[in-house]
């Protein structure tokens, strides 16, 4: 990290905090008033000029004050930021928002997204873990009509997935009940990524035994438990971005909303962020997505590696209120982890 004098740090910190509050370039007189530096505006201008030369600030117009660069924001967050702890009341309010949805994983994800948006006043995003990382708890088959079966898969995390499966041969509900019992005995407790391997292995074994119903059971299980699918991504509070002056430009706004709608770019970005645990912050160009180059992304993983690992976060302007938003993201991720852990601890 670049070494700055204490005086330079205080000037940079004052400029960044004021710019976050106002969105306007910050002049030397403002720094003199809002900092505890006993310096003249002329001396402060010299410090600001040095910071600009080092790439921490830039001057949008000759007569204007200074604005922090991405480098300036990065130094501020890494070295100067003072986090604002959530109050006991705020923590309880976040907890209360989860009442009534803990058993439904999809509703849990949506509720988390709304919490992040509401408490940050920006855009909340939540990505569940890949389906293949979930643990098999239970599967049930219900005959809908001839050759058509509804498969209901339940993961130990609470995730529920329904799929209609077509079979060449018709099976009675009694046969389906036997299939259900057989597959649950065989697969319960396995990660879904191992389920198909186990099914293929058992199919080879049962082929030698010439058990027709077990062969059908394994075929049905293989069709019902397909894990290759597009990753889910929950987004809430996109319109909050419109309140920020950075997005007054129509073309910029269109690009941002297109990224929200297409989701694939954000999924790749979040996948990349999942490589590091805990809270991570990406500024503008670090996201490597043109449409959100005026945004920052604050993320945190949740769950336990190897069992149920997802990621959540907040997208907002580069000048977002980091001292407020980072604790919101961190607390929500830890709370969601606790909720999911309580589901895992229940018997399979």
CATH superfamily of the largest domain: GAF domain
Shape: elongated
Number of strands: 10
Q: Report the sheet with the most strands, covering strand number, pairing sense and barrel closure.
A: 5 strands, antiparallel
**If you compute it from the alpha carbons, what radius of gyration comes out, rounded to the nearest whole angstrom?**
26 Å
Q: Tell me the strand percentage band.
A: 15-25%
**Average pLDDT:** 85
Characterize the structure shown.
This protein has 348 residues and is an alpha+beta fold. The chain has helices at 6-22, 28-34, 41-53, 70-80, 88-96, 105-120, 173-187, 192-209, 212-224, 250-262, 264-273, 322-344, and strands at 57-58, 67-68, 123-127, 136-145, 148-155, 160-166, 234-236, 279-283, 295-304, 308-317. The model is unreliable at 344-348 (pLDDT under 50). A hairpin with a 3-residue loop joins strand 9 and strand 10. It has 3 domains: 6-80, Winged helix-like DNA-binding domain superfamily/Winged helix DNA-binding domain (Arc Repressor Mutant, subunit A, Orthogonal Bundle), CATH 1.10.10.10; 88-130 and 231-344, GAF domain (Beta-Lactamase, 2-Layer Sandwich), CATH 3.30.450.40; 132-224, Heat-inducible transcription repressor hrca homolog, domain 3 (Enolase-like, domain 1), CATH 3.30.390.60.
């Amino acid at each position: 990290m670049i070494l700055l004098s204490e005086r330079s740090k205080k000037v940079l910190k004052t400029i960044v905090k004021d710019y976050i509050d106002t969105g306007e370039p910050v002049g030397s007189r403002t720094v003199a008033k809002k900092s505890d530096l006993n310096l003249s505006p002329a001396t402060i201008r010299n410090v600001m000029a040095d910071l600009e030369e080092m790439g921490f600030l830039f001057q949008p117009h000759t007569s204007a004050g200074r604005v922090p660069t991405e480098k300036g924001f990065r130094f501020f967050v890494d070295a100067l930021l003072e986090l604002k702890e959530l109050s006991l009341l705020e923590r309880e309010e976040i907890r209360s928002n989860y009442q009534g949805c803990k058993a439904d994983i999809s509703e849990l994800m949506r509720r988390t997204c709304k919490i992040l948006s509401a408490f940050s006043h920006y855009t909340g995003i939540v990505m569940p873990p890949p389906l293949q990382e979930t643990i098999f708890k239970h599967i049930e088959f219900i005959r809908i009509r001839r050759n058509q079966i509804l498969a209901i898969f339940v993961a130990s995390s609470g995730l529920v997935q329904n799929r209609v499966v077509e079979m060449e041969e018709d099976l009675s509900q009694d046969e389906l009940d036997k299939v259900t019992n057989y597959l649950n005995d065989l697969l319960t407790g396995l990660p879904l990524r191992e389920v198909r391997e186990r099914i293929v292995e058992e199919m080879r074994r049962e082929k030698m035994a010439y058990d027709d119903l077990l062969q059908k059971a394994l075929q049905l299980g293989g069709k019902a438990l397909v894990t290759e699918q597009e990753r889910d991504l929950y987004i809430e509070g996109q319109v909050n971005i419109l309140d920020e002056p950075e997005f007054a430009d129509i073309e910029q706004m269109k690009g941002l909303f297109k990224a929200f709608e297409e989701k694939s770019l954000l999924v790749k970005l979040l996948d990349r962020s999942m490589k590091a645990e805990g809270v991570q912050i990406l500024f503008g160009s670090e996201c490597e997505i043109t449409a959100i180059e005026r945004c920052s992304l604050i993320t945190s993983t949740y769950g336990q590696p190897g069992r149920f690992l997802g990621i959540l976060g907040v997208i907002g302007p580069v000048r977002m209120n980091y001292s407020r938003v980072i604790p919101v993201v961190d607390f929500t991720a830890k709370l969601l982890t606790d909720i999911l852990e309580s589901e895992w601890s229940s018997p399979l």
